[in-house]
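Practice problem 4.
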């Protein structure tokens, strides 16, 4: 059993290294991912921020959690794209002809998504600091923020894996991320849900982004998170497990 685990992690390390080299050789992907969230930060803070009532002193503090989720939603599309290219070029079949653990091929892409999205998130936070964002959170709260964002990234990345394995074209690969990016707009990411009409408010308050945003907002402002953190974790872990099982099922059928 220990030998199997050793080979699994060794193979996964090789696949992670391969995917990371692709990222490092094309840093424009990270730049592309961060351009839209930065533009949204600038637009909402400096153009719309004065007209939006959130009950906070700085709108950028209210806005940042939602922008971080949009950043991750944008970044996972590249995971689907790279996996789609590997499948179309026959690289996955070539890997399967080698003595490696089959699932490590997917895990290499998933862990690369985790690293590249973490870099994008750090860039967005640095830009927000330049725009006046301030947090009273301690070390433990920041670690909790990092943990929630990591779980959210893993959940969306496994959805991206399904798209990368199932898509018939490059356009199809990228299109799946649009609803994910749009979801924060119908949540408490930009405005409080109490300002929304009844049906929209009901949807906004019972979808995963709102609970995740509220959790991040409470942690960053050093406020009690209440039950929101458990709802957010349940959404992230639930989506991740379902997406993982579906991704593995599609993977076995396609390769």
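Answer key:
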């Amino acid at each position: 059993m220990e030998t199997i685990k050793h080979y699994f992690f060794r193979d996964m390390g090789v696949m992670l290294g391969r995917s990371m080299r692709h990222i490092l050789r094309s840093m424009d992907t990270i730049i592309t991912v961060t351009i839209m969230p930065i533009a949204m930060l600038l637009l909402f803070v400096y153009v719309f921020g004065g007209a939006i009532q959130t009950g906070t002193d700085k709108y950028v503090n209210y806005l940042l959690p939602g922008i971080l989720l949009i950043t991750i939603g944008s970044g996972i599309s590249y995971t689907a794209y790279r996996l789609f290219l590997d499948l179309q070029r026959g690289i996955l079949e070539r890997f399967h002809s080698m003595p490696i653990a089959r699932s490590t091929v997917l895990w290499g892409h998933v862990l690369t998504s985790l690293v590249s999205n973490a870099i994008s998130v750090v860039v967005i936070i640095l830009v927000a600091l330049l725009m006046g964002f301030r947090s009273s959170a301690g070390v433990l709260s920041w670690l909790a923020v990092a943990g929630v964002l990591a779980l959210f990234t893993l959940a969306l990345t496994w959805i991206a894996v399904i798209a990368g394995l199932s898509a018939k074209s490059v356009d199809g690969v990228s299109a799946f991320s649009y609803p994910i990016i749009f979801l924060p707009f119908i949540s408490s990411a930009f405005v409080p849900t109490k300002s929304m009409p009844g049906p929209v408010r009901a949807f906004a308050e019972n979808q995963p982004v709102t609970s995740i945003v509220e959790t991040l907002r409470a942690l960053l402002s050093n406020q009690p998170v209440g039950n929101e953190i458990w709802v957010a974790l349940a959404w992230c872990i639930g989506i991740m497990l379902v997406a993982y099982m579906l991704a593995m099922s599609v993977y076995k059928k396609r390769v």
